[in-house]
Amino acid sequence: MTTRPLNILLTGGTGYIGSHTAVVLQEAGHCVFIYDNFCNSDPAVSHTLQKITGQPFKTIQGDIRDTALLQQTLETHHIDAVIHFAGLKAVGESGTIPVDYYANNVQGTISLLQAMQAASNQPKTLVFSSSATVYGDPQYLPIDESHPTKATNPYGRTKLHIEEILGDLARADNTWRIACLRYFNPVGAHASGLIGENPNGIPNNLMPFVAQVAVGKLKQLNVFGDDYDTPDGTGVRDYIHVMDLAEGHLAALNYLGRSVGADSATNIHTFNLGTGRGYSVLEMVKAFESASARSVPFHIAPRRAGDIASCYASTALAAEQLGWTAKRDLQAMCDSSWYFQQNVSTSTGR
Ligand code: NAD
Ligand code: UFG
Predict the structure, then answer these.
(1) Is residue 50 in some structural domain?
(2) Cβ contacts of residue 68 below 8 Å, gap of 6+?
(3) Residues with catalytic annotation?
(4) What is the distance between the alpha carbons of residues 154 and 157, in angstroms, rounded to a whole number?
(5) In the prediction, which pLDDT does 122 show?
(6) Is the minimum distance from the CB of 131 to ligand 1 under 6 angstroms?
(7) How does DSSP classify residue 302?
(8) Mean pLDDT for the stretch of residues 221-244
């Protein structure tokens, strides 16, 4: 079931997850508007999105802390719903510049909520990009949405604070419809190879690092620890194809559309978006080698501070309530990631 076509604003819409979601929403018949300050993305992405979908994307350059510009954007484009991707996301960096993380992520979200409240068209449907990092070190696996939360770094704490703010808002005003989506580990790229994850500098995350080793840009992978309590000793994560994740946002919007008129106890919802299956670092390396037909040299390095052994989602709630499950397998994740990496290297020479 789909809702009527909506005008949807994506904060952070030129970023990795936002850009893939923009394609899925536009192809589902919605009208997508992007709001981004390009602090971690390329403005050219909106032209690429147009190339992929054949439809224009209106992109507004702005910071989410600019409440007046946000309000004006919401009103001018008659926005019905907001998907809030904009934020800083590097766990390590959040430990060195925590105030910037709170200012950008928490203050930025408050500014967005103020703009939504003040806008004359009163858009009160919001999907928020949360993270599995809010669960901290798992007490049990798979992790369901009732698992206790305990963020272990400033980035994770910004996500928890925002979830709490959204909970307070939903309780105070039952006309809001809010979904907090806790992503597990997004990887892969759109089948066109035109958009994907292309971090500046040395990648922090496993998959872009592996892809850059395979393409010859980086020499070797450091595997952070092989003495975890996992089948091969390396860390296990729930990798989810970014296109599956993008489709999860469409499912969440449809769900919020169906929940109009629900009572105040049910106007905020939290869902895990993962596959329910964990893969180790070494399994990921092997799968990528097979997809790329390249070798990925690695050496075993010490554990990375703050890392956990294993993390994977219970997917039951999203399946039951959203009617959404991840469909693409590890091969599709690695194939699309490799295809994108080759395109990036060819087009940018890096
Ligand atoms: P990304 O960095 O590719 O995209 C974020 C976008 O937000 C960028 O385009 C950036 O320019 C923009 N942005 C940041 N601060 C802004 C501001 N103040 N005003 C306007 N625009 C701003 O990151 P992503 O991987 O696409 O992540 C999207 C969201 O999902 C983030 O909130 C992130 O914390 C969350 N998340 C990501 C992961 C992951 O592994 N990628 C996992 C869990 C949750
Ligand atoms: N790893 C390596 N070498 C690397 C990079 C990572 O061995 O160069 C290992 C890590 O130790 C871990 C696994 O690969 O075992 C995955 O690491 P990532 O950095 O790719 O992902 P994380 O699970 O640490 O964290 C990511 C995002 C967080 C998000 C979380 C959600 O960075 O923002 O997924 O589960 F919150």
Answers:
(1) yes
(2) 115
(3) 155
(4) 5
(5) 94
(6) yes
(7) P
(8) 98
Ligand 1 pocket check for 103: Cβ under 6 Å = no
Sole residue written with tokens 């798992």: 138
For residue 283, give its domain range: 206-237+276-344
Q: H-helix or E-strand containing 114?
A: helix 108-118
pLDDT tens sequence across 237-267: 999 999 999 999 999 999 999 876 555 457 9
pLDDT classification of 198: cutoffs 50, 70, 90: confident
Can you name the residues that pair with 186 across neighbouring β-strands?
A: 240
Minimum-distance ligand 2 atom for the alpha carbon of 228: 15
Residue of 217, 237, 296 to test ligand 2 pocket, by largest number of atoms within 8 Å of CB:
237
Tell me, yes or no, whether 261 and 293 share the same domain. no
Whose alpha carbon is nearest atom 25 of ligand 1?
Answer: 16
Q: Is 318 part of any domain?
A: yes
Give the chain's domain count. 2
Same domain? For 122 and 155 the reply is yes
Nearest CA to ligand 2 atom 1: 206
On whether both 59 and 82 belong to a single domain, the answer is: yes
Distance in angstroms (rounded) separating the CA atoms of residues 239 and 287: 12
* Tens of pLDDT, residues 165-175: 999 999 999 99
